[in-house]
Amino acid sequence: MNQLILDGTVVDLDEIRFTPAQIPVRNFKIHFKDLTKLTLHKHVEFEINALMVGDLTKKEIKEQMLYKFHGFLDRRSQKSNQIIFHVQEYI
Fold first, then answer.
1. Which of 30, 41, 39 is CA-nearest to residue 73?
2. Which of 38, 45, 88, 89 has its CA 20 to 30 A from that of 28?
3. What is the rounded distance in angstroms from the CA atom of residue 72 to the CA atom of residue 4?
4. Would you say 33 and 66 are in contact if contact means Cβ atoms under 8 Å apart?
5. What are the b/e assignments for 1-30, b being 16+ CB within 10 Å?
6. What's the topology of domain 4-90?
7. In the chain, what's the furthest Cα-to-Cα distance?
8. Residues 6+ apart with CB under 8 A from 59
């Protein structure tokens, strides 16, 4: 099952754009930092490219705010090996 739940901070929030079929899309990055692993001498911190599509783009989202994201991972495009997090819900 390809399901990802990630608590992170929104960074690099782009404006809403539209596909040729007029479907709204919004790209952004999620910054993740996990300090609970410090007891294991491991500092986990990264940024992941993310996007949301459709009606979800109408929901208010702010940069530098912490959210819980639910979604899945996929390739950026059919010709790419880079991954992107497709957000399906956030709170």
1. 30
2. 38
3. 5
4. no
5. eeeeebebebeeeeeeeeeeeeeeebebbb
6. OB fold (Dihydrolipoamide Acetyltransferase, E2P) (2.40.50)
7. 49
8. 90
The answer to whether 8 and 67 are in contact (CB under 8 A) is yes
For the entire predicted model, the pTM comes to 0.89
Taking the CA atoms of 36, 40, 46 and 48 in sequence, report the sign of the dihedral they define. negative
Query: Please, are residues 50 and 85 in contact by the beta-carbon 8 Å criterion?
Result: yes
- φ, ψ (nearest 5 deg) of residue 30: -115, 125
Q: Per-residue confidence of the chain (91 residues) as pLDDT tens digits?
A: 999 999 999 999 999 999 999 999 999 999 999 877 667 777 889 999 999 999 999 999 999 999 999 999 999 999 999 999 999 999 9
Contacts of 22 (CB under 8 A, 6+ apart): none
